[in-house]
Hints:
The complex is a heterodimer.
Chain A: H1 5-34, H2 54-60, H3 70-102, H4 108-118, H5 123-137, H6 143-168, H7 172-179, H8 184-195, H9 197-213, H10 216-221, H11 230-235, H12 245-266
Helix pairs in contact in A: 1-12, 2-12, 3-6, 3-9, 4-6, 6-9, 7-8, 9-12
Chain B: H1 8-32, E1 36-40, H2 44-60, E2 66-70, H3 73-83, E3 92-96, H4 100-105, H5 123-128, E4 130-131, E5 134-135, E6 137-144, E7 146-150, H6 162-175, E8 186-187, H7 193-202, H8 219-233, H9 243-251, E9 257-260, H10 263-267, E10 274-277, E11 292-300, H11 307-318, H12 322-328, H13 338-341, H14 347-354, E12 360-361, H15 372-383, H16 389-403, H17 414-437, H18 440-446, H19 448-474, E13 478-481, E14 484-487, H20 491-497, H21 510-539, H22 547-554, H23 556-559, H24 562-572, H25 579-586, H26 598-625, H27 630-638, H28 643-671, H29 674-681, H30 692-701, H31 707-735
Parallel strand pairs in B: 1-2, 1-3, 8-9, 11-12
Antiparallel strand pairs in B: 3-11, 4-5, 6-11, 7-9, 7-10, 13-14
Helix pairs in contact in B: 7-8, 15-16, 21-26, 21-28, 24-26, 24-29, 26-28, 26-29, 27-28, 30-31
Amino acid sequence: MxxxxxKIIGWNLLMIAACAITLYPVLWVIKMALTPxxxxxxxxxxxxxxxxxxxxxxxxxxxxxxxxWLFGHWLFNSVVVSVATTALGVTFATTAAYAFSRFVFPGxxxxxxxxxxxxxxxxVVMAIPLYLLLDTMGLLDSMxxxxxxxxxxxxxxxxxxxxGYFDTIPKDLExxxxxxxxxxxxxxxxxxxxxxxxxxVVTALFSFMTAxxxxxxxxxxxxxxxxxxxxxxxxxxxxxxxxxxxxFAAGAIVVSVPVMALFFALQRHLVGGLTxxxxxx
Amino acid sequence: xxPKPVTKIKAIPWLLAFVALLLVAVPASSDxxxxxxxxxxxxGAEREALxxxxxxxxxxxxxxxxxxxxVPYDAFANKLxxxxxxxxxxxxxxxxxxxxxxxxxxxxLAPLPADETFDAxxxxxxxxxxxxxxxxxxxxxxxxxxxxxxxDLLKGNAPKTTDELIQTCERLAKEGLQGKSTNPCIAxxxxxxxxxxxxxxxxxxxxFDSDGNPVLNRPENQDSLQFxxxxxxxxxxxxxxxxxxxxxxxxxxxxxxxINGPWFIGELSPDLPYSVHxxxxxxxxxxxxTPFLTxxxxxxxxxxxxxEGAIKLARFLAVEGAAPRLSVAKQAVAYKQAFETxxxxxxxxxxxxxxxxSTVPMPNVPVMRAVWEPGSRALRAVLRGATTPEAALxxxxxxxxxxxRPAPSAANPMPLLLGLAVLAIGALIWAAKRMRSGxxxxxxxxxxxxxxxxxxxxxxxxxxxxxxxxxxTAVALFSHHQGTFTxxxxxxxxxxxxxxxxxxxxxxxxxxxxxxxxxxxxxxVFLHVTIGVALALVLRHPWMKLRGIYRxxxxxxxxxxxxxxxxxxxxxxxxxxxxxxxLLAAIGLEPVSWFSHFWTSFAANVTTNTWLGFxxxxxxxLGALQSIPAELEExxxxxxxxxxxxxxAVTLPMLKPALLPAVILGGVWTFNMFNIIFLxxxxxxxxxxxxxxxxxxxxxxxxxxxxxxxxxYATLIFLFLLAWSMASSRIQRRSA
Lengths: 281, 736
């Protein structure tokens, strides 16, 4: 059922306005990234006067004393940590959420609450104890340690999110599968997960971003330039007295483009889902 | 000739011999090569110069290869205090002298050899790195404020006194170009106590009394505040002067004079015609306006396992490294001779160096760190005309005395330990009873699948979240003073909850902050959900042909690191130069001084955070909408339900299971959304828009490192959120 043309145009205009408001502050980031000066731009005009790629070049071609191509290392580390966090986080979260959604067992309620509670721990108190813990486990300056920390940061939200979605999936589907003699794991992997695709996309994106943007813990745990992640390298442009805004902005763009690309690639999974069978408009 | 193939059996003795050799050789070679870890937070040319010096030192001392590491400034201090005591820290690190006292008292620094002479360095720089008559670092470079003058804009000489400064400003105002509120004649970060230093000393005041206690409220300091207030009222000094604004005004020629430090050089275009001069002396007193001096030193870690090499490197950087640092990195170096031997000396650096003897080293006593925040608050209160200098300084003194109050007396931990033991035993007995009496064990056995599904997440979270949290929370029962923790029982909690320091209605009291935090959370979550759901509902229609693009564009605020976007929003809210007031002016409204009033400041924070937060709710809703069978809505439409009815009767209830966790967790995250408060309003006015987490941060890092007190704040945040979530889940169940 298609609405009237005027209505379509009206809604589109509204969305264009929403996008414009959303993008207005971001234009400054782009302007600063393209301007060779390192000053913070305050003029109301968000379009660059001069265009130069020098800030991007500084970021891309940074080398350390041993001649290592630092940007390559940073990007690689960031991708490895973020992808591993996503994989681990989503695995942890889907299994746990399935247990919470489909089983009755002693400790269920308190377990759910405990996961929620972890999100209430203010980061201020966590950094130093985590440092001591990772040190004891020998995972201080390693991607493994960082991945573990990030995935546990992301898991509680993902568990809650997935459980909420699992709850909306009708139970008859599983009951039918049980009738057919399928085991719990088979049902989980073959019936539930494919149906939960939209929620999987959301949790995957969330886990990925948790790891992709974090820098305080990474900067505290990592002590080797080639093991830094991109945001740590980016945060170095912020100084004691002044900040190299041009380079910071260039880095911010480099950091955000993959997230947008990922979202763009995944968003078709956000539509579809259970609408099959319904009359499409 | 081909080598004869070695048979396996024959090879074994050789292999053994080789392994034996390795075993002998490994300690020998590690004895020969001990790397020296050098941490710093230098960037750009300073970093290049340092890297080159590190290579040079390695070449001269092949057994001590230097491994430099540039650590982000924000994480530097924290990283040092966690890494050094555990032996993962650097051997040498470069840092400003400001925290020297803290570090010495915490045992992080090794004293330099007593026979070392420091005559070759500027006296003030050596003094800055001295604690209790012991030298703790080789001075590398110094930084202080000076007067920058645009030679092309300011005709005549740079003002030497404040009278001349005012005359210059009046002349410029009359001549037309300058003096208008958008064209101030001088700019500096007037709301920062560090930048106010010169006037403090110029008017004959200061920070410490003769006993070494910080006392800000005295007539001389009041005069200095009155002075900047007058300059602002006359339009000579811009309103809400942030560092970004100062750079822009000076760079674009809106103001011919600025007061700033050597880092300013890097922010200005290289071809800008300017020179550097001493800050005008104060005519009223005839005293020079001496700025604070920051000295960067090469400090040696007390835990270095190569003390000899570390000291040698620190010395090398300060002495042999001085000339290259001066010519390549344009550092104002502390080693005097470098000014004669360096190949090329930037004239601006020379002008800075000429002023070094007329500076005051910034105090390196820990108590000074409790002064910056209240001092800056007093300045900002006076600048926006909210209060008199006397009242502002009086309130600053009160805040300082609270931040430096004596730690609660040590308590006996036995009662608590006993209590915990009793509780633990009680819990065990209760659990055992339940296990035996009911059929809990049977239930658990039959639900073993559930536990298997749950195990990975539960184990990981228990180890990596609950363990550190318990440790971190336990700190709340201690008081931290200069590296040592003392058990004080519940004194921190009693102090916070009882509002012992501030009355309940004071913006800095726990209860006031709690109320602001709750309001902050409710308003934000409401806006996030409303906007996010509304956009998602529009974006799911297939007839929105461009919806893929809209969706991708609308998540941009979530994707860009919020550190930079928050600061852009802060700039947009600037009173004189911000885009938002520009917009208001365009439609004929008065400009708003956003950060001067509680509600406008709060609104600025909320706007920024709403912008940041709605994409997340939009994405969640887009996902959740997919679980709603289209038939349901179609059916409602056929039944004649209006779009609003359809939304509340069909769509919203179906969204609830997925949206509810997002709302609860979104609430928790917003409650602890530190970045926005810290970067946008910074707590202005007078700390009123501060939320609990940013207060906790300030107690931990800007008020004498009261980690115990900060942990108590954090624990209260946790308990509050816990209580709230339990209450809300009870309400939910009742309504269900």
